[in-house]
Amino acid sequence: MNCPFQFGRAITDEFFTDRHEESQRLLGNFQNGINTILISPRRWGKTSLVKKVASSVETNELKVIYIDVFPCREPDDFFQLFAETILRHALPKWQQRLQAIGEFLTQIAPRINVSPDPINEFSIGLDLNKDEKSPIEILNLPEQLATRLNCNFVICIDEFQQIGEFKDSLNFQKLLRTVWQHHTRTSYCLFGSQKHLMQHLFTDKSLPFYKFGDVMYLNKIATEEWVNFIVSRFQNTAKKIIPEQAQTICQTVENHSSYVQQLAWLVWSYTTTVVTSEIMENAIADLVAQNSPLFEELTSSLTAPQLRFLKAIIAGEEKLTTQFAIEKYKLNTSANVVAIKKALIKRDIIEVDNNRLIFTDPVLALWLAQK
Ligand SMILES: Nc1ncnc2c1ncn2[C@@H]1O[C@H](COP(=O)(O)OP(=O)(O)O)[C@@H](O)[C@H]1O
Ligand SMILES: [Mg+2]
Question: What is the mean pLDDT of residues 181-209?
């Protein structure tokens, strides 16, 4: 029997639930050429949402191109990936791509590889030279192609926070913004995790991407939606879970999208016909156990005060700079509390959500609470 839950990668179709409002808003932005910035912690569902909307909006007149810049470490990696992806997706034939390179990327030498794939006999790479003009030509490529093909493009760039880590990132950002702001046929959907990085890039008045587009913060999927989803996924596969148990799945992992699906999958796979409380307990214990090597490694690199700070959050301590909390959790001084918080946010272990500190990974909180 096929598993009715999926996690660990972008999902579509029957695995996708909810996000009606966000889908509508994103769809509207794509259709109207409005730039979008989409922000949420990791594995809440950004990539899934963008891919779903992208597949529903594609026509001959509106083409969506998806680029994941996670592997990029410096601007040259970005330019290379950007140009190659756009050529590949905008132009089906390699002859057209070669022609476009000659016409629009005048400073760049194409590198042609014979590919084992019989449909695309050749793959085309690009040799960037350090010429000033080539980045600008590359950034203008979608706009040039859109004019040529008489269509509009939406360029979706995933893991965009990565560019904040480039050396000399500020100049790179300035260049992107300067070129892209003149585009009329191409709009951009820039999305990524690590809220502190993304928020900084797009809401800091002194940075180039300030007010670049519609900033969307993706929220968690509500418990009610999840419960309906889980119950019906069990039903469709002739197994039974009651709403209270589905609710426990959500609560355990604080509605974290990927973990809800992972825990639901564990519960489902342990169940023959009806979910029992023993199955629920085992599944939760196994979810924590499966992740524990990772958590061991992560926490071994934290200082003792940082760990005590995390324990304080788990205990529900709201005001960590008070004398009471500082003494109780041995956090030294309030300046130290501020420094710890900053360091843990920078390492993406905690983040601020609706004015509250939360664990980026709710299962890490479960694991720590048990220790
Ligand atoms: N709309 C959704 N409905 C159901 N599950 C989802 C949804 N969005 C995300 N998920 C779950 O979360 C996981 C991670 O989603 P993904 O889109 O890769 O997140 P992100 O891009 O924010 O890191 C998916 O594999 C899936 O298990
Ligand atoms: Mg993603």
Answer: 92
The reply to whether the predicted model has a pTM over 0.85 is yes
Mention the CATH class of domain 19-217: alpha beta
What pLDDT sits at residue 270?
Answer: 98
Nearest atom (ligand 1) to Cα of 9: 25
Report which protein residue has its CA nearest ligand 1's atom 24.
7
Closest residue by CA, ligand 1 atom 14: 43
Q: What is the domain partition of the chain in residue ranges?
A: 19-217, 223-370
Ligand 1 proximity of 20 Cβ (cutoff 6 Å)? no
Q: Which atom of ligand 1 is nearest to the CA of 256?
A: 12
* Secondary structure of 37-106 as H, E, C letters: EEECCCCCCHHHHHHHHHHHHCCCCEEEEEEECCCCCCHHHHHHHHHHHHHHHHCCCHHHHHHHHHHHCC
Q: Would you give the DSSP letter of residue 222?
A: P
**pLDDT per position as a tens digit, 300-342:** 999 999 999 999 999 998 888 888 889 999 988 999 999 999 9
Neighbours of 51 (CB within 10 A): 18
Q: How far is the CA of 280 from the centre of ligand 1 (A)?
A: 22
